[in-house]
Task: inverse folding
């Protein structure tokens, strides 16, 4: 059975940088400059974040959690 997902793709005119920190482990992920950000949200509350097609972050959100991308 395939996972149901919703994909959000944002193309920016200027490259940007993203840094993500896992509050549980304290691990920080900092990307190289990228021009496309894609977020895939699955019905099982799983999410995946891609920069220029490369996965840089994944996880599972509980009810009330917020995924913030600065």
Result:
């Amino acid at each position: 059975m395939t996972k149901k997902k919703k994909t959000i793709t944002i193309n920016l005119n200027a490259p940007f940088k993203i840094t993500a920190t896992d509050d549980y482990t304290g691990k920080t992920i900092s990307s190289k400059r990228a021009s496309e950000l894609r977020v895939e949200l699955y019905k099982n509350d799983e999410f995946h974040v891609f920069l220029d097609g490369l996965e840089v972050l994944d996880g599972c959100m509980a009810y009330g959690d917020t995924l913030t991308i600065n």
About this structure: The CA atoms of residues 37 and 51 lie 5 Å apart. The chain has one domain: 5-60.
